[in-house]
Amino acid sequence: MTRIVIPDDCPPVMLSSRAYQELTARAPAPVDYHDSLPDSEQGLIERIAGAAIVINIRSSSRFSESVFENCPGLRLLSLWGTGTDNVDLAAAARQGVTVTNTPGVSAISIAEHALALLLSVARRIPRTDAETRQGGWPRGSGRQLHGKTLGILGLGAIGRRFAHLGAALGMRVIAWTFHPDPALGIELVERDALLASSDVVSIHLRLSPQTQGLIGARELSLLKPDAILINTARGAIVEEPALVDALAGGRIAGAGLDVYDTEPLPPGHPLTRLENVVLTPHSAGVTPEALEAGLSLAVENVWNFLAGRPANVVAAPGR
Which CATH code of 3.40.50.1390, 3.40.50.9100, 3.40.50.720, 3.40.50.620 fits the domain covering 107-279? Predict the structure, then answer.
């Protein structure tokens, strides 16, 4: 029988979902469900040994070549989310494993969160809120976004959605992307030109060997002194020490961050001591609507695979 394993639903999001109810009702065998994280690569291997299908919830579970080699019965890895940086896609294909993801389902939620971070930084809302609660009455500390230039790195579903939100605020929107498409109607510019001319730079790229460390000290030096950086993509796209230096030295005005090199963010991390940064805990896509849509698509990818019609494939044997 086809064994399905969920090895890492921690903290739990799948268990209470409608998607899980459908999965358990239709699955050809009882679903092997775990609400804790594997404690090691070997722990992950032990959990999914003998499985034909794995539904991966957390990017902290890393599917290396060793994992695939030690799980010869695995045929489908269904990822919840769009990121694939926790999976050796080439090794999956070599070992006969199809990998799917759930593109686009969190685009609205993440774009809205990016806007919330931007407004919080531009209007200094956390600091103003704290001062008001302490009896202060701070005035004139916010910045207007209308008429400013928004530079977007990456025009996938999230980047395109955020471009629309920026335009709705009256911002001039420019973009740089690996796959330019003039038909999108968004002004495309070279990356360095975008960094140098934007009042706000927002990152909407996948983490890959091409994008890791894409924004380092050189790139940050191109930003305007009053520029704001927003990152809801992956922490490793920005060189974190260089960003801390730029923020602490006042070389850029501020940042709104939902992602980091190390997650959870360690206590006492330098970013937590900076007043010109707004931090959230990798939660941009965590809304009830986005959660249910993503989990449902991860399960739908299972049914499509079993029916011989794999969809949302990011790696497959022979590819």
Answer: 3.40.50.720
